[in-house]
């Protein structure tokens, strides 16, 4: 039944959005550079119109294009993403104290992994996969933790920024104040 539901959900997504909308959604969620073909496949749209949309997003400064490799890749402006996420955190209704507690929880989780695996980084944890005594489940667990660790490090930077710039990120409530 779950497979049927996901197929229905994907069908509804395709019916309710245009190809351009889907390309924009995929592009905004990129966490690493991807080719136009990869983005087109994720957006369930053909290559040529996907490339046109990606080029417009590059022209608008939303994406960057990298032609240095064997394939052209596209990736978001990570600074813009971080700023938008910090503003969402500021506007979310959470207090600075709640975000500070969340920041402490995230750093504690990383310290726990450092202690548990006797490593200092996600890549050092990945390096432990060469240990021949690990079974497949342990290897999978370490890979997943390394991915989570990378994600937590990104979140820590964004949450830390939102806390440090709490006052600056406050929405302007009086348009008259903005004009003065």
In brief:
Residues 1-20 are annotated as: Disordered. The protein is mainly α.
Strand proportion:
5-15%
Oligomer: single chain
- Helix share, percent: 55-70%
* Count of structural domains: 2
Silhouette: flat
Order of helices and strands: HHEHHEEHHHHH
Biggest sheet, spatial arrangement of strands: 1-3-2
Low-confidence stretches: 1-9
User: N-to-C terminal Cα separation, in Å?
Assistant: 58 Å
Q: Biggest β-sheet, characterized?
A: 3 strands, antiparallel
Mean pLDDT over the full residue set: 87
Number of helices: 9
- Helix vs. strand class: mainly alpha
Question: Features of this protein?
Answer:
9 helices; flat; 2 domains; 180 residues; disordered N terminus; mainly alpha; 3 strands
Description:
15% of the residues are buried. The chain is mainly α. Strands 1-3-2 form a 3-stranded antiparallel beta sheet. Helices cover 68% and strands 6% of the residues. The protein has helices at 2-16, 19-28, 36-43, 47-59, 78-91, 96-117, 122-127, 136-164, 175-179; strands at residues 34-35, 63-66, 73-76. The protein folds into 2 domains: 2-76, Winged helix-like DNA-binding domain superfamily/Winged helix DNA-binding domain (Arc Repressor Mutant, subunit A, Orthogonal Bundle); 80-172. β2 (63-66) and β3 (73-76) form a beta hairpin.
